[in-house]
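Q: Here's a chain of 56 amino acids. Please give me its 3D structure as tokens.
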Amino acid sequence: MTLFLLLVIAAIVLGIIGVVAEGLFYLLIIGIAVLVAALVHLGLRIRHSGRRRRTR
């Protein structure tokens, strides 16, 4: 969960810098890509944690 939060914070910071700074639009694109990666990571983690292993 810590990795997810770190990726979301990084995406927000990159997005803000990309919007505010003139000529750094690519940072906004990178921020969006990082946010998508964080959401995919969270989705995979939730999907795998939902499966229960069979105990013997």
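Q: Can you summarize the key feature?
A: Helices lie at 2-20, 25-50.
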